Amino acid sequence: MRPAQLITVLEQEFTSTSEGHHTPVMLWGPPGVGKSQMVAQIGERHQVPVVDIRLSQMEPSDLRGIPFRNDELVEWAIPAILPCAERHGEAGILFLDEITSAPPSVSAAAYQLILDRRLGEYKVPDGWAIFAAGNRQGDRGVTYTMPAPLANRFSHFEVDVNLDDWVHWAYENSMDERVIGFLRFRPELLFDFDPAHNPVAFPSPRSWEFAHRALQKFDRHPQLLQGALQACVGPAAGVELTAFVNSLEQMPDLDAIVKGEENGVPQEIDLQYAVAAALVGRAIKAQRSADAAIVIGHILDYANRFPQREMGVMLVSDLHRAIGESLFQVPQFSEWATAIADVMLYQ
Question: Domain range holding 212?
Fold first, then answer.
């Protein structure tokens, strides 16, 4: 399932806790596709804590707690890591990350916690959702087969990598437009993981975020840039991204484009992708300014100049993902939509 769809699933599962309809969710997927980040995004959206428990680092007794004597009775000291309404709040997310890396003896200790929302005398607060995530057995991680009794306590979703969803996330999180433009140009490199070769560094949504950080740190150190990018996304992808970044010296004047001045479209396809990504970035920066409609209008005018109209469609689609329905209020949008109507109908 696409990340954008899974975000909606997690959103509904979280909000359903107050109505008693929540079902624990298990997210499956290879490393680096954003499973943990999606859960964190739900927590940030609702401003609730995410209690991250790694069962792979625990013993079976760690969840149950420690017994202590109270007069003639033996009671259990509840572990502080478990959600508590008094300490953490009435609502939140209990996240069992890397659950497939936990030995069966430890995951068995979580059976009651996941299904019945309690463990001995401990009870998960009513407003808390339970999510889990883990790698598949073929992903070359440290994984165990999920026991059937545990699997039957979850609804299961597999995370698919989707470039459009990643681009939407990237613009929302101020990712470097050069990375976005490169992946529009080479979409197959968003995720390129072959577990049979067990690479150390490889392209994934997570490692492209590392590449974004590397560009900020090493942009002024060209002798180090390629090595830094290769350390993030692997040797081949790192070389390609470096070449792409170096080619951007031939880009047209973006300031002139957003001012509506005449400016040609580069012939090279990679530069066209780079220009499109950079213009979306300019639109985001101008969104809250007084001349936002003017800037966006000039970008729409430029979208009509691409020799391949599909490139203009991609630019405007990303523009819509980045700034939302305010795009439709710009006068040039209707002109652009009319001009490419046959392309949209074909798609």
Answer: 163-346
